[in-house]
Amino acid sequence: MWRQVAADVAGRRQELDEFLRPWLERPGARIVLTGAGTSAYAGEVVAAHLSARTGRRVEAVATTDLVADPRHELLPDVPTLLVSFARSGQSPESLAATQLADQVLTEVGHLVLTCNPDGQLAADHGGRPGSLVLLMPEGSNDQSFAMTSSFTSMTLATLLAFGVAQPDHVEPLAAAAEDLLAREAEVEALAALAPGRVVYLGSGALHGLARESALKLLELTAGRVVAWSESSLGFRHGPKAVLTPATLAVVYLSNDPYTRRYDLDIVTELVGNLGPERVVAVDAADGAAPAPGSGRVVGLRGTATLPDPVWGLAGVLVAQLVGQASSLALGLVPDNPFPTGEVNRVVQGVTIHPLD
Question: Which key words are in the record (predicted)?
Fold first, then answer.
């Protein structure tokens, strides 16, 4: 999927550049990354690095927040590029967010990243002036309950579109994922610890990745395994209360040398709390242990030079595999952990109220 994403973005490079240029050349413009659930976390992974790359104001605002409070989440007189992430393009909030932006904002553009060419969002914005729809490769529209390739494909496409990821990043990223999948048993062994709770931690872009990781486990186990996420520094400020002797802690280690120090500090502290068997460092530094006695290490080989939001797309496979193995261990079907429909693949039961 990722290789095809790169090829698709390259094929539309000129069109993307022409669409984005007016927004990137305006110092006062605002870029809002929006989506619901997993799609919202895609924006959180991307936002800070995209802001640093473009020198523009970039914010991740979930559609669930934007739709509920549009008068405060949208700034009427600020020119805004709304970047919408939507696997199906059918979620009520995804559709309402773009409509509210048109209603509230004086000047707005829409970049839509979706995996469903037949979705309403793609239909609303395809060929529309001021909008550009970037479709993900066929097959990325996950048929299973949880978003996996759709999440990583839309995130990678955004990183490539705005120049945070470079075309030559994609092959080592894909190779690292293939290598990790070949070592699937190494990751599934974590689920064999039968953790009652799992904590995912990360800093910067990897905090957004931690949030997505926790959601995957919660979804795939139908809530029977409690999952928590936080930043590496923020965890001590109350959320650490979630720890029990049966907790598994997974820390994504930043490739930034300064940020990495804080991630390693919490790894060391957690090893003291839980023991080395229940602390896992997911590391892009070619799988070398961060320090003796620092717990388990799952290495993403060949990604030590990639920016955090890029290598993290291979790192999140750790959480996806843990979620799948945990689901199976509980006797559930990972593709459909809610057979009676309490939670749905495309959200239901949302009433969109008109904005006066």
Answer: Repeat
**Model pLDDT, residue 292:** 45
Lookup: tokens for 86: 């939507």
Point out the residues of the chain with pLDDT beneath 70.
286-294, 343-347
Q: Provide the edge-to-edge strand list for the sheet that holds 80-86.
A: 57-60, 30-34, 80-86, 108-114, 131-135
Residue whose pair of structure tokens reads 């006695």 in the numeric block: 293
**List of domains in the chain:** 2-165 (3.40.50.10490), 170-329 (3.40.50.10490)
207/252 Cα distance (integer angstroms): 8
User: CA 244 to CA 277: how far, in whole Å?
Assistant: 14
CB atoms within 10 A of CB 252: 31
CB 82 within 8 A of CB 108: yes
Q: What's residue 340's pLDDT?
A: 76
Q: Which of 152, 123, 161, 122 is nearest to 38 (CA)?
A: 152
Tell me, what's the pLDDT at 332?
94
Identity of the residue numbered 208: G
